[in-house]
Amino acid sequence: MNRTIVALGDGNTRYFLGDEGKCGPMEQAWPAQMEAILAALGAKTAVRNEGVPGETAADAREKFAARSAGAKLCILGFGMEDIRRPERTMASYLAEMADMFRQAKEQGMGVIALGIPWFDKNYAGELVQSRLPKWNAGLSRLCEESGVPFVDLYQALGDDPDRWYGERKLPRHNLSAAGERKVAELVLPLALRMLR
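Now predict its structure.
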């Protein structure tokens, strides 16, 4: 039975160290931490990390079929790079997410969507930060309409930036190892249910 999970996303999927400007150890990224939790539970499940720092939903949509091939479940974590770019609209972001949902379903693959996590207003400005609740609400509605489980990272990670975010010099927007662990723990029950 195929139990492969693929995680597609941006730097928060790959575990990017903002202050250092480089990727951190792959084993501290949430997909690897979730794979370790699954192994400890006796579930033989591979979790492939296809996170790419700086990637938008538009970038991922174009490569979706190739990067998700062979998976039973796909977890999508996009929006951080989309929302901070002035040329990107919520409508185009949601259309790209909807297209990836469609592609996954056509391949017989389950999907889980991660909401856009909290980030410091100094990362992209107050206007962009003020759009976060609206974009997340739009994604949540799309997920409900599409039958896709939604994980609200904005609420889950915005309460304690010192703990969940890694930056100490730059504005906070990349998850710490503890933040990556939190994502793994939030996604785990949904993934287990969908792999049955």
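The beta strands are 5-9, 16-17, 22-23, 47-51, 73-77, 110-114, 150-151.
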